[in-house]
Amino acid sequence: VQLQASGGGLVQPGGSLRLSCVASGSIFSLNVMGWYRQAPGNQRDLVAVITRDGSTNYAGSVEGRFTISRGNARNTVTLQMNSLKPEDTAVYYCRAESRGYDYWGQGTEVTVSS
Q: Which of 19, 37, 57, 63 is an S-S bond match for 79, by CB 3.0 to 4.6 Å?
């Protein structure tokens, strides 16, 4: 499974960004997909995940501001980020689980700054 993430950038506080991740390869067995982030000097933390049947889980710090969704083909995952705060600044990574294995995409950088 290969993951290709896109959509990061620079945005002002209060703004919005949309991250997308497309999985290719053995996508028929994809289960959980999601987004994690890592700020400088910090560990990589969960942002939001979504299962194959659409169940979601969010970090408390983003709940109500971020929305994760999955495409009809179940091989894409999107993170709509609204009301962004400077503390959301991080490198965001797409993750997918398939048959017990974890796959990670390359990071996409999100910077929230005025």
A: 19
Position 25 scores a pLDDT of: 85
Residue 9: is its pLDDT beyond 80?
yes
Structure tokens at 49: 């995940």
The letter for the amino acid at 5 is A
How far is it, in rounded angstroms, from Cα 66 to Cα 75?
Answer: 20
CA–CA separation, 28 and 10 (whole Å): 34
Which of 73, 76, 61 lies closest to 19 in space, CA to CA? 76
Q: Report the C-alpha gap between 89 and 28 in whole angstroms.
A: 33
Interval 6-35 mean pLDDT: 93
Helix (H, G, I), strand (E, B) or coil at 45: strand
Determine the average pLDDT of the residues in 85-109.
95
